[in-house]
Request: fold
Amino acid sequence: MANIRTIKRDFFTSEDIVSLSPLARLLFIGLWMEADREGRLEWRPMAFKLRLLPGDNCEINQLLEEMVSRGMVVLYEVLGKKYGFIPTFKEHQHCNLKEPESVIPPPPELCKTCNAYACTCKHVPSHESTCKHVQARVEVEVEVNKNNTHNSAQARADGRQIKTPCPASPDAILTADLRAEAKAKGWPDPDREFPRFRDHYLAKGAQKENWLAAFRLWLQDEITRRQTSPPAAATKRRSEPDDDSWAGAL
Reply:
C-alpha cells in the first residue's frame, strides 16, 4: 500500500522550507513518501534520485545536504547501515492505521539541553549505547570475549601457547548449542534461517569477524520481521487445475 502524505497550507511559508532551493523543497516532500509511519527511512540517495527526481539534472547529495544541515533530516547509523529521520514528521502527518509499523531502528535520543541528537551531543549517551540492536550485538561480543579470556588464562596456567582465533566461517556456526539456545529463547529455526542468512551475506561478499554473533542478531531480527510482515495467503488460481485432473482427462 502506497504511503499517503499531507501538505498543509503553511508549508509554503515555513521559514525552513523557504530557505531551501526549489528542487530541495520538492525532494523533501518526496522523502515523506519514502519514510515509514515514524518518519524513518533507509538512507539511499541514488534511489531517491531515481524515484523522486528522475527527470531533473541535479546533484542529489547537495539537495539532501540542504535539509541535513538545517536539521530537517537527521542521519544516523546502526550496525553499519545508514538511516534518516524526519524530526517533524509526526507533527504534520497522520498516517493510515493500516500502514505497517516501522521496522527501522529508532534514531538517537534528542537532548533537551541543546536540542541536538545523541550522535552529536555530549549531554546524552551515544546512539550505540541506547539502541537495542547494538546492545544485542555488544552482549554477544562480551560473552565471546569472556570465553576467550577464560580460555587464554587457562592456557597460560597450563603453559600452552596461545593462538589468536581466525574469523569463523559462516558454515561452522550451526551447532547443537545454538539450536538449543534458539529453542529456549523462542527464535526461528536456525536450520531453516541459515541458508537465507548465508546467501544474503555471501552474495555481497561480506566478511564478519564473528559469524555466530551476526547470525544470532539475524534470528532476533527475524522475529520482528515476521511480526510486522504478515505472511501472504497461499492461494491457487482457479484457472490452474491440479496435476491429477490432467491425468483423468487423458
